[in-house]
Design a protein that fits this description.
By secondary structure, the chain is mainly beta. The chain is built from one helix and five strands. The termini are far apart.
């Protein structure tokens, strides 16, 4: 999803190494197809918009 402003279509792998779930403080896995960071412990998927992870519980999608 690159545009004229050079918005990244993926998240920097170095950033993924330091991010943690805001609920459990556990690790997050990257779902490239859905552009989400998934916390299995919290059963939440946090969106990534324009290459920026949105780690707000109110913005997260509940997992089954």
């Amino acid at each position: 999803m690159s545009d004229s402003f050079n918005t990244p279509s993926t998240v920097d792998p170095r950033l993924l190494e330091v991010l943690v779930c805001p609920v459990t403080r556990g690790t997050l896995s990257y779902d490239r197809a859905r552009q989400e960071l998934v916390s299995k412990g919290a059963k939440l998927a946090f969106p990534i918009r324009d290459g920026v992870p949105i780690l707000l519980v109110g913005e997260a999608r509940q997992l089954d």
